[in-house]
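Retro notes (design track)

What went well: tokenization of the new backbones is finally stable.
What didn't: we kept losing track of which sequence belonged to which structure.
Fix going forward: every design gets posted as structure first, then sequence, in one message. First example under the new rule, 257 residues:
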């Protein structure tokens, strides 16, 4: 169903539509039809490799993904999915993959040829498939020293994606200064990640038009997170931002200002 929704979606000029894939994964589609997937965890690889059972179903199967660009924030299994990426790479031979250096080995093991990989460094800007990718260092500690936070600029609509990180206002300020329209923060609060209050303080700093929390209620061992607590905290700290919750597979169209 989600794959058909993405395929059939008609995006107004200047707008972008996004869909939550569950965990930290999002899909985007531009008015030009470019399809971008960020951190798509669509399999049961975490249970197969780590014993972490998936608690919510994927809204799309790996073989249904039609993508022009896949962007990864770091190399952990629930972001660089070793059971999803080989399928996506094989079925989308023109798809490019952009990721920090820590993902290099995992992408190679997924069968992604080196010429299809753009390695991302912090504090840089990259232009891929008509999308500007702005990077900042995430703080995921020794768990992933090359992890990144990102802003994707779709030609006017900007989405800030925290990936897995602690709240680090100084490191994130260059991304906040880009005035993102949408903030997509992780809120599970364990393994060094922001909890819902940290994420609400980041939202106050960024002042986006929309904020959609993620990275919760997927793997019990990774913490439950408090999505409604995040929404309540945003109402108090940044009432001008529309903080909202999506179901896996649910979408939002972001129009120009």
């Amino acid at each position: 169903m989600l794959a058909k929704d993405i395929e059939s979606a008609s995006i107004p000029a200047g707008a972008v539509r996004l869909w939550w894939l569950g965990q930290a994964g999002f899909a985007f589609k531009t008015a030009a039809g470019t399809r971008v997937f960020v951190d798509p965890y669509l399999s049961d690889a975490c249970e197969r490799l780590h014993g972490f059972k998936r608690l919510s179903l994927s809204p799309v199967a790996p073989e249904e993904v039609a993508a022009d660009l896949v962007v990864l924030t770091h190399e952990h299994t629930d972001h660089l999915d070793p059971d999803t990426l080989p399928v996506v790479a094989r079925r989308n031979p023109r798809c490019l993959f952009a990721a920090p250096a820590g993902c290099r080995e995992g992408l190679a093991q997924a069968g992604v040829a080196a010429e299809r990989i753009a390695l991302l460094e912090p504090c840089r800007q990259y232009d891929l498939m008509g999308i500007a990718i702005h990077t900042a260092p995430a703080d995921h500690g020794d768990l992933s020293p090359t992890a990144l936070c990102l802003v994707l600029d779709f030609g006017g609509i900007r989405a800030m994606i925290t990936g897995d990180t602690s709240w680090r206002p100084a490191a994130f300020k260059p991304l906040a200064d880009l005035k993102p329209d949408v903030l997509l923060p992780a809120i599970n609060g364990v393994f060094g990640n922001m909890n819902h209050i940290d994420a609400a303080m980041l939202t106050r700093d960024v002042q986006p038009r929309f904020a959609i929390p993620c990275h919760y209620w997927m793997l019990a061992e990774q913490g439950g997170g408090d999505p409604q607590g995040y929404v309540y905290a945003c109402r108090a700290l940044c009432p001008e931002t529309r903080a909202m919750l999506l179901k896996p597979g649910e979408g939002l169209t972001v129009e120009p200002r």
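Added context from the reviewer: The first strand starts at residue 16 and ends at 22.
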